[in-house]
Amino acid sequence: MIASDLHKEYPWARLHSLHYPVRLDALGEVLTEIRAAHRQTDHSDPKPDAGRLIGHSADTTIVRRLIEQVAPSLATVLITGESGTGKEVVARQIHEKSGRKGPFVAVNCGAIPENLLESELFGHTRGAFTGAVSARAGRFEQAKGGTFFLDEIGDMPTVMQVKLLRVLEERVIERVGSAESIPVDVRLIAATHRDLPKRIEAGRFREDLYYRLSVFPIEISPLRDRSADIAPLVDEFIRRLCAEESVSIQIAGDAMDVLQQYSWPGNVRELANLIERLVVVKPNGNVRRRDLPWPIVEREEAQSAKPRILSSKLDAVSGGVHVSLPSNGLDLKQYLAKIEQDMIHQALVESDGVVQRAAELLGVGRTTLVEKIRRYELNTAKKKAH
Amino acid sequence: MVVNRAGAAADNLKELIEFMDAPNVCTATPAKWRQQIGDSRLEAVFIGPDLSDKDVRALVDDIGRLDPNIPIVMLSEEDEA
Q: ipTM of this predicted complex?
């Protein structure tokens, strides 16, 4: 049987042909094609260690509970959070706890050129376009019986959004160049660092797809809002790296204080990178505050100066008058809540209603402040004008 | 993996592929290849020249069920003419 006959019978197959006895140059060409194809379609390999959710902060505990709840179901999950917060880790955890036997396949929608994304996701038939020398199954088919993780879904071109919506509604795909519908048994998890409602308003993301994806939303807080996770994360990264590099480092108390105060704009990824750097710079050493890179120490100093500025402002406002306990007592919880409410109100006025700026003024994380604003039913639209 | 009936031809091909820096090449007959690989992941399957059409079809069917993206290399005897 010759390869061209086989092509007709098995249009999906990734067929190559060689004459026997084999010539080395021809074999070399085929092996090069195979290697190139493997690089393009490499299944997302399992990373058992990277798949663990580290930390015991309230936010991480909630995320862990949500994972337990959603994993056994087939519900589509939408994971949101800033870059580097560990969205893929959460997705892998859901897959591992789902009991699904198929693979975990991940695709970063933002990393694949728009013109290649469709064939990457849905596959193509032989000759569907120039360069499609053999048929290929897409990532959806590769994830058969498993989990398909679509990272950076907010960056998916709108044309592709329509096609993805159809897959979610009908559970079938069509390879590029074919009209045949192929059923797909996959559990879909999507993630983005983008504000999807804002992108919907801007006409860059389909509202119907958003509702299809966010059947079970999970929001991951930025690392600055869960500083209780920093020490366990540091320990974990040190454990992994030291095992790999056969070295041993310790983080001294003064250095750990800086790490816990720092705002981590790059989140967990930035922390992991820092530890990797420290393992190289101080192998078998005790890392002190002075060993940390200056941008981290400098920003930590700037941040820790804030409460002092705020307290001096408070002194100025109160005229240095100390509060005293009324003779008939008070409800401390209510009293403190009132002060908190007033402070948030003032910060919002000072920041013209910009929550991020107000959060910085108050020295709390944005998510924390949003929660408090919601609880106290404060209006963020208040302006400084009065 | 090289699948062929005649062991000598399969071994010859295995040596050539390994010579081209592709390690861990194994050989098998059409009847035994599936049990031989177990849970290992296949990078490619070379189908030897002495397999019948029926064997080839059965093999390609099985590969498709296992993973449709496994590259299949068909070896055919060069025409004498």
A: 0.92
